[in-house]
Design a protein that fits this description.
Low-confidence stretches: none
Mean pLDDT: 97
Number of strands: 15
Number of helices: 16
Strand order of the largest sheet: 4-10-9-8-7-5-6
Radius of gyration: 22 Å
Helix content: 40-55%
CATH superfamily of the largest domain: Type I PLP-dependent aspartate aminotransferase-like (Major domain)
CATH architecture of the largest domain: 3-Layer(aba) Sandwich
Structural class: alpha/beta
């Protein structure tokens, strides 16, 4: 089929994810190949994948070593479960993850996606407290505008009203507290910050004995790459320890090098009780997610008279092909020192994005770290004018999509709390690729300014 036929067939038979009807009726690209930091479409045009797929293709496209690991596993053992048995790829993947994870986070429950990882963490913390004689601990605290997934439990924890509204009522007992927007760097004693004091206030209001867990991302994706202020995560850890609450670090985006470390601990300095992961664990070469749990918690659940088994599982959890890919991917990431590359190049990328703020009146703020950034837009920074609702729609639905096509750089326009441009290149992007990315961003900002008057 030619590209016209492919699009027509897609419109008739393929259900798109988070895609408006008018976008699905447009001349959307159809990608047929990937090479390094680039996607190639049906017409042979190369597009710089500035979002690493969906924050996941950390090691880049077209890795022959990862493809070989997948092919060899398919030919050896295509399927076996982790229900009362095991297989070498899942065992090896769990071992490698335990070696890299902080503290005593040594047991991994594999699932298939980030949403499922959050769902698994929700179920674990509830069953854990029940096994320890505290069945009343069912409530969850998460942060406003945070995205934690789309399954019903994960969506309940998510703090984005727009994507929750069509599916209510959701899971009860979820409280959302202020995020760290506006708090950066050294803001003074962390336990005195409003964004921390609000968490303790909710704990006391709900009753500490009823709260199961606090969910937070090391760098929050929703609302635009919110890097926490100094001391914030130690303050979260102290609050959870004070009230017997489990701390869940949702690292579906942040783990496996995105921030320059294998896990968020490298940024926060804090060992959480559970870590959720997905995207970068396979660099998108196969579906895989998981929850890493402190070994003490697993032992206490299994050894309890009310425990004995974590009553949860999935047919594809720890799939041999997916975990074989994870082993190849994580091993390559470690051996090629990819997180170190991000730590080296990330500050340069951040500085270059900041320089675009000076060059463009439409840039309100640049936030992020490592290879994970958000540019927040406005109509005129010098005049203090924000975008109107209609201008925001114009930017997100018309200007930026056309800019992506024109520049050949794929990014993401984001409307979660503000009008933003999300940037998340493959972690293997070299200086030339990053220069091309920055040139594309510069052009996009120019297009926004041409479309929006001061």
């Amino acid at each position: 089929m030619n590209v016209t036929e492919l699009r027509a067939t897609a419109r008739r038979h393929l259900g798109p994810h988070f895609t408006r009807k008018d976008t699905w009726q447009s001349e959307f690209p159809v990608f047929v190949r990937g090479e390094g930091s680039y996607l190639i479409d049906t017409e042979g045009r190369r597009h710089l994948d500035g979002l690493a797929g969906l924050f996941c293709v950390n090691m880049g496209h077209g890795r022959a070593d990862i493809a070989k690991a997948a092919a060899e596993q398919v030919g050896t053992l295509a399927y076996a479960s982790n229900w009362g048995s095991a297989h070498p790829p899942s065992i090896e993947a769990a071992r490698i993850i335990a070696d890299l994870a902080p503290g005593d986070l040594g047991t991994t429950f594999f699932v298939n996606s980030g949403s499922e990882a959050v769902e698994t963490a929700l179920k674990f913390v509830r069953q854990y407290h029940r096994s320890q004689g505290a069945p009343e601990r069912t409530k969850i605290i998460s942060r406003e505008m945070a995205y934690h997934g789309t399954t019903m439990g994960a969506l309940s924890v998510t703090g984005l009203p727009k994507i929750k509204e069509p599916f209510g009522p959701l899971l009860p007992g979820i409280r959302h507290v202020p995020n760290t927007l506006g708090f950066t760097g050294d803001c003074g004693p962390a336990d005195q910050l409003d964004c921390v004091r609000a968490i303790e206030a909710v704990i006391l209001e709900e009753g500490p004995e009823t709260v199961a867990a606090v969910f937070a991302e090391p760098v929050q994706n929703g609302r635009g790459a919110l890097v926490p202020p100094e001391g914030y995560w130690p303050a979260l850890r102290a609050l959870c320890d004070k009230y017997g609450i489990l701390l869940v670090s949702d690292e579906v985006i942040c783990s496996f090098g995105r921030l320059g470390h294998f896990f968020g601990h490298g940024l926060t300095g804090v060992v959480p009780d559970l870590i959720t992961f997905a995207k970068g664990s396979t660099s998108g070469y196969a579906p895989l997610g998981g929850v890493i749990v402190r070994e003490r918690l697993v032992t206490e659940l299994y050894d309890s008279p009310k425990g004995g088994v974590f009553t949860h599982g999935a047919t594809w959890g720890g799939h041999p092909v997916s975990t074989a890919i994870a082993v190849a991917n994580i091993s390559a990431m470690r051996d090629e020192k990819v997180p170190e590359h991000v730590l080296s190049e990330g500050p340069k990328l951040h500085a270059a994005l900041e320089s675009l703020k000076d060059a463009h009146r439409c840039v309100k703020d640049v936030r992020g770290t490592g290879f994970f950034y958000a540019i927040e837009l406005m109509a005129d920074r010098d005049g203090g004018r924000e975008l109107t609702d209609q201008e925001s729609l114009t930017v997100l639905r018309e200007v930026l999509p056309e800019s992506f096509r024109r520049t050949g750089v794929i990014l993401r326009g984001d409307d979660r709390g503000a009008t933003m441009l999300m940037i998340s290149p493959p972690l293997v992007a070299d200086t030339d690729v990053l220069d091309e990315l920055l040139h594309g961003v510069d052009g996009m900002l120019t297009d926004v300014e041409k479309a929006i008057q001061p």
